[in-house]
């Protein structure tokens, strides 16, 4: 008679989930093996080479991506984790894009602005002084004839014949001041844009713009003074 109990006499199996079987010591999955989607290695089990957790899935505790391998989206390194040498830890967060600041123009030599300032000064002051002297000569030489000329007639340009030298001088002063003033205005703007004597360039632009007004005012004052002097001298 057999000593083994009959099958119907064996105790029933225990109810509940079967505990996982730990891997054999020294076991490593083959190279290139990719676990099925949704698989996560148990705690303490090294992830196979080339394994990346699915998108949005938190990496298991103690897992670190291999060197040179980018961390998956949503992955946060565990507390106290330090990246291996040569690897930068992922940024904590991304802010709005801020474009780099434009490089400031380096100030160069101020020669360009200084030259523009000198040209504007010559155009405004020099041309106005020459024009004023010529205007006084024209007024003094024609004051008597203009005072005796009837007012109901058109202006007789032959009156300017005795003072034609002063008329020519006044024209040269006007056109010379116009050319130098335009030159100073353009060069002053270039000096401002290129930051090469910006202060001098700003002053040159202001003087060049006001130059024609100064010239016209000075010539008008001196011509009027010359007319008065000429009419008085002629009796």
TrEMBL record:
List all membrane-crossing ranges: 114-138, 172-193, 200-229
Keyword list, A-Z = Membrane, Transmembrane, Transmembrane helix
Record region (Disordered): 1-86
Stretches with biased composition (Pro residues): 8-28
Q: Where is the composition biased (Low complexity)?
A: 29-86
For this entry, the protein name equals Uncharacterized protein
| Source organism (scientific name) | Microbacterium lacus
């Amino acid at each position: 008679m057999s000593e083994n109990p009959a099958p119907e006499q064996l105790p029933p199996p225990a109810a509940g989930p079967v505990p996982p079987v730990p891997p054999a010591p020294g076991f490593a999955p083959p190279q290139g093996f990719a676990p099925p989607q949704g698989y996560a290695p148990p705690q303490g089990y090294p992830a196979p080479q080339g394994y990346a957790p699915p998108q949005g899935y938190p990496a298991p505790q103690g897992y670190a991506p291999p060197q040179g391998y980018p961390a998956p989206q949503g992955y946060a390194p565990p507390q106290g984790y330090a990246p291996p040498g040569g690897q930068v830890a992922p940024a904590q967060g991304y802010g709005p894009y801020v474009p780099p600041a434009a490089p400031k123009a380096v100030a160069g030599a101020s020669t360009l602005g200084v030259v523009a300032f000198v040209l504007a000064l010559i155009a405004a002051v020099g041309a106005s002084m020459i024009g004023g002297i010529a205007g006084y000569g024209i007024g003094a030489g024609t004051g008597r004839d203009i005072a005796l000329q009837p007012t109901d007639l058109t202006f007789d340009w032959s009156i300017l014949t005795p003072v034609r030298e002063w008329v020519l001088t006044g024209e040269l002063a006007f056109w010379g001041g116009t050319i130098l003033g335009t030159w100073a205005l353009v060069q002053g703007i270039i000096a401002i844009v290129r930051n090469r004597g910006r202060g001098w360039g700003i002053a040159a632009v202001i003087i060049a713009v006001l130059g024609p007004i100064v010239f016209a005012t000075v010539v008008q004052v001196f011509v009027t003074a010359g007319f008065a002097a000429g009419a008085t001298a002629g009796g």
